[in-house]
Amino acid sequence: MSAGSFQSLKIIFLLSALIFQISCEVKDQVMDLSAGEEADPGPYEKIHSLSGAVILKPWSKSLESWNAGGSSYYVLDVGDAKIMEFSAKEGVIIRFDQGMAPKDFESLIGKRVELTGHYVPKETGTKPRGQYPRGIDGKPKPRGSGFKVQSFKLIQ
After folding, report:
1. How far is CA 134 from CA 62, 67, 80, 130, in A?
2. If you compute the radius of gyration of the chain from its CA atoms, what whole number of angstroms results?
3. pLDDT value for 23
């Protein structure tokens, strides 16, 4: 083996060892960050409180009704309040978390309530060969957004 070949192998070995050492240090730093700090919840995971009047809307051939799921649905009318995201003309489409059901809201129609929960983003999901609204680009309109209720209380 010539001296030049030996020198080249030595350089390659040293570079490999250096790269390995740096990658281990970076991995340790990333693990330290993820173990020590909890990420702030995103806007859809953060718990919010909204107040307004509960209304029951019938199915209609509209994008709002499509977003709600294709049958009658509950909406929280927030009036002029500033909220993170409107999913209905009047406010938010009410979605139900575990332990909550639409029947829990039958007696609340027309009454003012405070809802605690989190926003739910729209999702694009359609059945093949189904009928659904499409945007100008030909893609299916998303649906499923609203406000998932974890708890509520009546406001006087």
Report:
1. 12, 12, 30, 11
2. 27
3. 54
- Residue 31 predicted with pLDDT over 60: no
Per the CB < 8 A criterion, the answer to whether 115 and 146 are in contact is: no
Domain definitions of the chain by residue range: 1-38, 48-154
In order, the DSSP letters of the chain are --HHHHHHHHHHHHHHHHHHHHHHHHHHHHHHHHHH-PPPPPTTTS-EEEEEEEEEE---SSHHHHHHTSS-EEEEE-TT---S--SSSSEEEEEE-TT--GGGGGGGBTSEEEEEEEEE--B----TT----B-TTSPBPPB--EEEEEEEEE--
End-to-end CA distance of the chain, in Å? 92
Which 3-state string (H, E, C) describes 12-33? HHHHHHHHHHHHHHHHHHHHHH
- Contact yes or no for 146/120 (Cβ under 8 A): yes
Specify the range with the lowest mean pLDDT, choosing from 23-32, 57-66, 96-105, 113-122: 23-32
Match 């999901």 to its residue by tokens. Answer: 125
Burial state string for 46-60 with b = 16 or more CB within 10 A and e = fewer than 16? eeeebbbbbbebeee
